[in-house]
Amino acid sequence: MSEQKTVDEMTFEEAMAELERVVNQLERGDVPLEDSIKLYERGAALKKRCETKLKEAEEKVAAITLDAEGNPAGTTRIEGK
Amino acid sequence: MSDLIDDTGPGTNAPEFTVSEISGAVKKMIEGEFAHVRIRGEIGRVSRPRSGHVYLDLKDDRAVLSGVIWKGVAARLVTQPEEGLEVVATGRLTTFPGQSKYQIVIEDIAPAGIGALMAMLEKRKKALEAEGLFAADRKRPLPYLPEVIGVITSPSGAVIRDILHRLRERFPRKVLVWPVAVQGEKCAPEVARAIAGFNRLTPGGALPRPDLLIVARGGGSIEDLWGFNEEIVVRAAAASQIPLISAVGHETDTTLIDYAADRRAPTPSAAAELAVPVRMDLLAWADGQGGRLTHALTRAVALRGQRMKDLARALPRPAQLVESARQRLDYTGDRLGPALVATAQGRRVKLSQVSGSLRPAALRRLTADARRHLAERAGRLTRDMLQRDIARKRRELDTVLARLSRAGSVQTDAWRRRIDGLERMRQSLGYTETLKRGYAVVRGGGKVITTRSRAEAAPSLEIEFQDGRLAIGDAPKR
Question: How much is the mean pLDDT over chain B?
Fold first, then answer.
């Protein structure tokens, strides 16, 4: 568990890579039992993190409105047709 | 007759113009005749003075035509004149009477065919490439799952629709659309401004800074896509800190922004595919990982349980483990007492051996020996010894003294013999011996008288003979 970042700070990609690593390690079966339980718990947390990130599948589309100089002034929603 | 009819030479009846008149006529004619022309030629020298107007030459292999593009026109040209570019210039001819010149006032300029355009594109590409703007080490990796995607395209049309549609299918995300013109002269500056503008946003702000940009446009002619070949667009894409996907035109169209982008997508939909993974796949993957995780742990526990059972079977009875140890203990315990006794005895024997020689008798013998030794020495230390010593020393002294007196008498004898010799010599030399032979010594007044005159003068005389003195005259009695 060399990763210093806590699971909750990980991006989806980091959590994904770490989860893969944990699963592989656990599947190799050469981890002491004590550690394999810790690994399992970490894997479960990572999976939860991944699922959370996957649930954040929120679509929000906005178009930037520009002022006279062409700088962004705000947004308007656009319909995702 | 001659009054009626002018004598005219050939041509002399032609009307006479002033220079201005003829210049004006030429101007009128040229501007009337060539009010709208399209001229094909290669652009020669281009100069852009501060006024903003553009002056250039159009030329072919035999002729040169001066041209001018007024400031207002120059600003909205899609194709900016570049030296060497083969163009078709549209405009009107005009003259410049002050210098006897004519020129074309250009209203529009377009590359003369695809070949000319491609040649210019190639040239520009080489220049930008030489600057390193397309270098592979400038390319940034795309985020695996971007939080906010910035899309730079036309807000209306199929492109944004395709992108949003594909994104929703795969993985709905926050999307910020920066509307731009995707063709025409406004295209390049607006796209460049949008790329820079997205980069200037702050992450998580009111307008959150995207972590991925897509610059997209649908298919079109090379002229339609031309804005994406413009240097400002290429530079903005190369400078973007946010990873950028270009998706301009169809798969076969390549614009310069594609070289500067971090990834090139063949179509806008493909850009959406590059941008996000498929959510359902990932959910399934996460489920799969969860399954593997549980399975692996279960298996790890089961394996260990099995192994424990196996080992437990191989484990001997506890009593069996202890038996041999107990036997050893008994055996060793039995030997413990005798061993102690034996050791003690051994020590005692050794002690008695050692202490045996340490008895008072031994000490007495030692002192007796010492006393005897002392007595021996003391015995030798008697008066005899001292006296012998003294006697010996005295003998030595006597010898020395004898030698000294012998040496002394030898010395005195020698001296005595010398004195005797000297005495004999003195007597034989002295007058007394002479007296024995008949001589006499005459004295007068106590003094020896050697002359007659002194004898006569003396009141008395004394004559000394060998056997004594004889006074003559009134010599006082002796």
Answer: 87
- d(C-alpha B193, C-alpha B199), whole Å: 10
Which ipTM was obtained for this model? 0.79
B93 vs B58: CA distance, rounded Å: 13
Tokens of B316: 């001997």
CATH superfamily ID and name for B2-111 = Nucleic acid-binding proteins (2.40.50.140)
Residue A1 has pLDDT above 50, yes or no: no
Domain ranges of chain B: 2-111, 148-281, 434-472
List the Cα angle B317/B319/B320 in 5-degree steps. Answer: 65
Among A48, A54, A55, the residue to mutate for chain B (most B Cβ within 10 A): A54
DSSP H stretches of helix in B103-230: 113-130, 158-170, 187-200
Q: Is the dihedral of CA B408, B413, B416, B421 positive or negative?
A: negative
Count of CB contacts below 8 A, A vs B? 116
Note whether A47 contacts B: Cβ–Cβ < 8 A: yes
CA of A8 vs chain B CAs: smallest distance (Å): 16
What is the pLDDT averaged over residues B316-332?
84
Domains in chain A and their CATH numbers? 7-75 (1.10.287)
Q: Do A43 and B289 touch (CB under 8 A)?
A: yes
Taking the model in full, what pTM does it have?
Answer: 0.56
Q: Please state, in angstroms and rounded to a whole number, the distance separating the CA atoms of residues B463 and B460.
A: 10
Give per-residue pLDDT as tens, B68-96.
999 989 888 878 888 888 889 999 999 98
**A27/B165 CB distance under 8 A:** no
Minimal CA separation from B302 to chain A, in Å? 11
Average pLDDT over residues B349-359: 82
Strands B460-465 and B441-444: antiparallel
Pick the CATH number of B148-281 from 3.40.50.720, 3.90.550.10, 3.40.50.261, 3.30.300.30: 3.40.50.261
**Shortest alpha-carbon distance between residue A38 and chain B (Å):** 10
- B171-195 mean pLDDT: 90
At residue B323, the pLDDT reads 84
